[in-house]
């Protein structure tokens, strides 16, 4: 594994340990070069309460690797989380910088009604 990926995974592990200590429901984001994925995971880490990605049928038609697609994923995951009864989450950016697509997804999730 490259040093860049190892460092990102170390940052992600430290953040997840803190969220587990706080027993927070978390909004976990993964960013690949082509797609964005978001999951709302229960406080014990054992159950996915809601999820959305650019691979969903509702979002599949448009471009999938840009800021606009990330905004759509953020709104969709917020809508599904609220339907599951979740409004308060901790934002788990998986070690990625809070910039660009990750920031766009977070802002859209806030607009959709999630608090973090």
Automatic annotation (TrEMBL):
UniProt keyword RNA-binding present: yes
Family indicated by similarity: Belongs to the universal ribosomal protein uL18 family.
Alphabetized NCBIfam families for the sequence: L18_bact (TIGR00060)
Example of a GO biological process term: translation
Keywords tagged on the record: Ribonucleoprotein, Ribosomal protein, RNA-binding, rRNA-binding
Gene Ontology molecular functions: 5S rRNA binding; structural constituent of ribosome
Subunit structure, as described in the record: Part of the 50S ribosomal subunit; part of the 5S rRNA/L5/L18/L25 subcomplex. Contacts the 5S and 23S rRNAs.
Gene3D superfamilies: 3.30.420.100
Protein name: Large ribosomal subunit protein uL18
Keyword Ubl conjugation set for record: no
InterPro entries reported in the protein's UniProt record: Ribosomal_L18 (IPR057268), Ribosomal_uL18_bac-type (IPR004389), Ribosomal_uL18_bac/plant/anim (IPR005484)
Function statement: This is one of the proteins that bind and probably mediate the attachment of the 5S RNA into the large ribosomal subunit, where it forms part of the central protuberance.
Pfam families hit by this protein: Ribosomal_L18p
GO cellular component, one term: cytosolic large ribosomal subunit
